[in-house]
Structure formats: structure tokens, C-alpha cells
Design goal:
The chain is of the alpha/beta class. It has a domain of about 120 residues: Rossmann fold (3-Layer(aba) Sandwich), CATH 3.40.50.620. Helices cover about 40% and strands about 15% of the residues. It is built from 6 helices and 5 strands. It has a 5-stranded parallel β-sheet with strand order 3-2-1-4-5, with helices on both faces. α1 links the parallel β1 and β2. The termini are far apart. The C terminus is likely disordered.
Length: about 180
């Protein structure tokens, strides 16, 4: 990079609970658009967490340790405030479908109006279009086969989900649908 040129820094915010191959796809393609990409791991007060914040950060750092130009940081509060605090000018967001686009468009317009922050959208790879962290959490909580999620999740996440599922099901075994005979 030539001296005097402004560095392009972006923030990819999310709960990442758990991080999916779809998230990693957006990160790996997004890092090519910016000099630096900060993966900002936060808390969504409207969602229950499966992994504590520090565990999510640790997993993401491990998964991205060999990806140049990427940093992982935790944050709280408004995303636009965090973006300004790290002197970024852009938010990176992944889009899976039309529903995401509508929601993300509203956020992008608000972030530009409130914080002067632009948003760049990347369409997720089609193999990840149906991947949702919320659905993955639901599958785990209801005792679904975590092995079936291997194409959607990094190996370290699958292993951690198996551990959580064993612990969860041991503490709160599912109630049978019908009385035992």
C-alpha cells in the first residue's frame, strides 16, 4: 500500500452463535475488499446464547488465525458506535435471501442516517443460503443429529456443539410424546 493512502477498514458484526461456514465464506471474500476486516462479536439481547461470548471469540480467532487482514474483537452497544470507535467506515454484511435483504437494507439505511456509516453486502455462497445460527441452536437444543451439520459448520464448532448437547440433554432430558407402556 502506498503511503498517504487511507486504509479501508470494515467491521463484520454479529452474534456468531455459532459461527458457520457461511459466516466464514463472507469473511474470506470480504477481507479481499478491505485492508482490514474486524469481525465484531457481540450480544443480541433478543436471542439466547448457546456459547458464552469469550468462547465464541476464542473459536473465531482459532478459525481465522491464518487469514491475513482479519482481527476479532468483542463489542457491546450500538454497532455504529463500535464502528466509529475502531475508525472503520464500512459495515460488511452477508445476505442469504430476500428476507435478509429487506432487514439488512433497513439497518444499512439507519446506520447511514445515524452514524454516517456505509454498508457493503456480500451474497453468501449458495451452499450456505439456508444456514442459520438460530436454526442450528434449535437443532442442538432439541437433540438433533449434530453430525448432519458438518457441511454447514467448522469441525471445531461441531465438536463443541456435541459437548453442549450431551450436557444439555443430560440436565434436561426430552419429555416423551406418549406415556411409556
Amino acid at each position: 500500500m502506498t503511503s498517504g493512502k487511507t486504509r479501508k477498514r470494515a467491521v463484520f458484526p454479529g452474534q456468531f452463535d455459532p459461527i458457520t461456514n457461511g459466516h466464514l465464506d463472507v469473511i474470506r471474500r470480504g477481507v479481499n475488499l478491505f485492508d482490514e476486516l474486524i469481525v465484531a462479536v457481540g450480544i443480541n439481547p433478543e436471542k439466547r446464547e448457546m456459547f458464552p461470548l469469550d468462547d465464541r471469540i476464542q473459536m473465531i480467532r482459532e478459525l481465522l488465525k491464518d487469514t491475513p487482514g482479519v482481527k476479532v474483537q468483542k463489542y457491546t452497544g450500538l454497532t455504529v458506535d463500535f464502528v466509529r470507535s475502531v475508525q472503520a467506515t464500512t459495515i460488511l454484511r452477508g445476505i442469504r435471501d430476500v428476507s435478509d435483504l429487506r432487514y439488512e437494507f433497513q439497518l444499512a439505511m439507519t446506520n447511514r442516517a445515524v452514524g454516517g456509516i456505509e454498508t457493503v453486502f456480500i451474497m453468501t455462497g449458495d451452499q450456505y443460503a439456508l444456514t442459520s445460527s438460530s436454526l442450528i441452536r434449535q437443532i442442538v437444543a432439541l437433540g438433533g443429529d449434530v453430525a448432519q451439520l458438518q457441511s454447514l459448520l467448522p469441525d471445531v464448532v461441531v465438536q463443541r456443539l456435541r459437548e453442549i448437547q450431551k450436557k444439555y440433554l443430560k440436565e434436561t432430558p426430552p419429555t416423551p410424546d406418549a406415556p411409556a407402556t
